[in-house]
Give the backbone structure.
Amino acid sequence: MSETINVAVDAMGGDNAPSEIVKGAAAALAANDNLRITLLGSKEPVGQALSGLDYPKERLELHETTEVIEMAEPPVNAIRRKKDSSLVVGMKLVHEGACDAFVTAGSTGAALVGGQILVGRIKGIERPPLAPLLPTANGPVLLIDCGANVDARSSQLVQFAQMGSIYMEKIVGIQNPRVALFNIGAEEEKGNALVKETFPLLKALDNINFTGNIEARDIPAGAADVVVCDAFTGNAILKMYEGVAKVLLSEMKAAIYSGTRAKLGGLLLKPALKDTLKKFDVKSYGGAPLLGLTGLVVKTHGSAKAIEVQHSIEQCIAWKQADINSVFISRMHLVDRTKTAAD
Amino acid sequence: MSETINVAVDAMGGDNAPSEIVKGAAAALAANDNLRITLLGSKEPVGQALSGLDYPKERLELHETTEVIEMAEPPVNAIRRKKDSSLVVGMKLVHEGACDAFVTAGSTGAALVGGQILVGRIKGIERPPLAPLLPTANGPVLLIDCGANVDARSSQLVQFAQMGSIYMEKIVGIQNPRVALFNIGAEEEKGNALVKETFPLLKALDNINFTGNIEARDIPAGAADVVVCDAFTGNAILKMYEGVAKVLLSEMKAAIYSGTRAKLGGLLLKPALKDTLKKFDVKSYGGAPLLGLTGLVVKTHGSAKAIEVQHSIEQCIAWKQADINSVFISRMHLVDRTKTAAD
């Protein structure tokens, strides 16, 4: 039998908390024998959401917390003040080793700050990147970083490239993933100061399959498996993806409802279109992992339903089984700077 | 009668040169009495493209050039070496005042470098931004900058904001245009070092309608008339727009051709969809202006057809009639630093 994994789940975060979160947790437990879950949240609503659900009760623990970090709260303040919030307590359980990973649909900012401050980094990792999987015409692409490192350094991007490559290989199962540097042109000499400095460093790495620069327009087509960028740019890419898709689909919907003829056409086209749109549905990928921490933090969508929560929890199982952090440490030749200084 | 405008047109640039460029020029001449055009290019192919076209011949001059800057050439080298290229000669005509503006479908890099080096900036303008109009669900938005300023300074973004606002008011006819700063969150304290420094400067301007930060996902919805950013980010936004739209539409097309039922549906839906997609067709906007130069440079798409070339030329007429450069100088309180130092 495989090793047990303990996942802490924030039952209070996101638009559909606690009911969809709790349902997702129950489904993950039922589907995975080696899983234990610690649900963090307010006793009454979480207990109510659990009642009536069919799941292996001996592997679920409800850890009561009395506070909730709201979406709009400034993350640093919230984490300092709300010591008994589901997010703070869950992350502390990971820090202490009582849990292996933490899943939340709550505030992204709080997840990023909490990951850094409460869970803590692997020694030698400079900054933890948030790395969502995006759909493309050609399978998913890992966009690393979309998190907090908005003024990144080249040495950080170099680590992101390696972590992203390992993640795509071990978790998504892509052999020799194509790692590309986000840039505004394909040529090596293009770009801003950061990417110009980063390009030769990535080229010199012998532990990734660096395929050079990638332009934004080639991302949705699926021209790389890992796209490396600073978090400011990553955020622009991620949200343009969502924004353009949303506007185009809603305009298309409006066109379908614009008259009888179009309506009939839409009806006939529906099954084929549904398959297409499914391919571009981010929800099937679970959540975005925050990598490089001593445990795993997965940030799932604020609007996540049970199935997405379940996938996010199962991401944690895959991460533990592949022993990703040990692979990071062995393959990335991490240097613990604090130790080196003391030696 | 209104003032005559002289537009230099690069007949050799772009995928469809010279025929579509020449056709566009002829159409612009026929439609605008006050327009004169200087076509730059190789005598024989351009002459051939002109023959048979109906246009006011007395207002078109063919200025022979013997070289062409190719798309893949490094811009700085190309401009230095190819002194008799259509792009270099055309820009020099603007610099000398023989022409008011220059339109090219050729290399963007060469247009940016040439604009700076050959045409020259308005005194007090730090850097010329390239500012394409993008379609949104709610009319066009000016994305400023998508050009060469990949490591921009806040003082440059402040100028971009003002130039963009004036352009949208005077050329596109939007009263009190909403100027937003591109950022990864709506709150003032969000962002990288550049946008954090820029936000209070934009807030303090009394000559624009600054509406705060805008996130990428709100751009396609049309939440601003002008979006201010550095060129690295602008490029990411612009090309994600193109990339996502292209992939979604091609997947949708594939769905329509996936079976008889879907095909019939697609056929019925076609007229309504066509109207929708027209709204998102960038071609109707002409080209991207490179602003802040002593003349106007318009970079139109490499794949531009005659109608787009015509619109780009007509953009120059509108720019001249609105006397945009004088408005820049008077409204932006430009300081000529070279002069100030000498005083």
